[in-house]
Amino acid sequence: MASLAFSFKMGTPTFVSIPFSTSSSFTLKVNCQKTLAETSAKNLPPGPRKLPLIGNLHNLVGSLPHHVLKDLAIEHGPLMHLQLGEVPTVVVSSAKMAQELMKTHDHVFSQRPEILASRILSYDHTDIVFSKGDYWKQMRKICLTELLGLRKVKSFAPIRDDEVSNLLESIRLAGGSSPVNLTEKIMWLTSAIVCRAAFGNRWEDQKAVISIAREAVSLSGGFDLADLYPSKEFLHVITNMKPRLEKMYLKLDKILDNIVNEHKQKLANRKGEPADDEDLVDVLLRLQGSGRLECPITIDNIKAVIWDLFAAGTDTSSTTTEWALAEMIRNPRILKKAQEEIRQSVQGKETICEEDIQRLQYLKMVIKETLRVHPPLPLLIPRESKETCEIGGYEIPEKTKVIVNVWAIGRDPEYWKDPDKFIPERFHDNSIDFKGINFAYIPFGAGRRICPGISFGLANIELPLANLLYHFDWKLPGEMRPEDLDMTEAFGATVGRKENLQLIAIPYKPSSSYQAST
């Protein structure tokens, strides 16, 4: 018997021992040696030495993937070649190389690699993130115009107002001298907003679906053993990956089926006419029945898209909100400045609405800086080359997996002064934004595959964060000092904090505690 001692669980490399028969191990070794021989004959980007059978998997053990890849890039360059099992991989770690990939050669790298988790949970790649070709172009257009366009995002403002009000009340009830678990409360807030926007109401199975969403996103990076050796289908069974995903799928499909059927009945009752309170399922069903789509969509396609929106939209917004709060607690000067801006701007109002947000320029800088230092997906969802091309003088063969390390790019001292420090003022009086134009700052990606839900995601960060800063003063429990706050990362669906954010909330009363400046 042989043993393969490398696997990736929940996105983080871990050692496991998986037995193989001698013949299976021999086949793996021959195939991997063949791959290594083929790659050595090409003008590939530089990279660390590759070992038989595992390639560079050993290089990724010992720390979080985005940290390890950044360190390797410092040694081998911003365009680096790795052999991850059977999968040839290129890692991009600089703004210049990212621009080459996502602008100059964007058409070459506009597709996704085959990943087992996405195939099963996204209904055979018919969502938005992993779909291809004309179908993907159509669904992306629908997403930008009908589902998550600016007008549609604004129409969800009453939902955000209502759920933020619920959040504030729950904090008041849980307040006093006991710490409030803001990690849980912010996650529940974000998932409630996304549920109501997508499906019209909260789910009874909301907690279970959040758990599935987190695991699904964490597996979408293609770091599981079955994805690293795609030709070896027996690994899908040995690692229990395929049975686990199929079990998740059956549970998820039952929930989504119930939601879609409820909406079909509602649509039938109003005879196909659009309504003012259309949620995202309503929109997709209406478009399906319109007969105007170039690529007709099925019920499974609808389930794939709404699941995509939920899985992608929940953890990313909540994680960013939590990181922003944690960074401000750790930097009292920044916290004070943000609260003063908000409290002066609203001048004693009982609550903050979305119209107020536009005046809160420092808050927007805090959010931008949070996304630079803590991008929710530090390694963007992988792309794949659909043909051979040249980048930076090196050959990138067809079907090469490409990983963009936006965490490393956001901390590149060539573009950012004091890159490891949290300084919101660095965004004052400059035009850097989230639109994927400045490649030193691409927390949402760039090019054809840029995140289509930026407006929706930001709205779910800005309003809750502004209200949390306005309605409460915050302090750490016990004798903790700001510099004692643990900022250790945990790699999962997104990169959040390892420890839950526990803070003491002190209600703020505008009428008695603050006099607006005149």
TrEMBL record:
InterPro entries on file: CYP450_71D (IPR052306), Cyt_P450 (IPR001128), Cyt_P450_CS (IPR017972), Cyt_P450_E_grp-I (IPR002401), Cyt_P450_sf (IPR036396)
Annotated positions binding heme: C451
Q: Name the CDD domains for this protein.
A: CYP71-like
Q: Which cofactor does it need?
A: heme
Which Pfam families does the record associate with it? p450
Domain of life from the UniProt record: Eukaryota
UniProt key word ATP-binding: no
Q: Which UniProt keywords apply?
A: Heme, Iron, Metal-binding, Monooxygenase, Oxidoreductase
The molecular function terms of the Gene Ontology recorded here are: heme binding; iron ion binding; monooxygenase activity; oxidoreductase activity, acting on paired donors, with incorporation or reduction of molecular oxygen
Which SUPFAM superfamilies is this protein grouped with? Cytochrome P450 (SSF48264)
Query: What's this protein's family per the entry?
Result: Belongs to the cytochrome P450 family.
| Stated name of the protein | Cytochrome P450
Phylogenetic classification of the source organism: Eukaryota, Viridiplantae, Streptophyta, Embryophyta, Tracheophyta
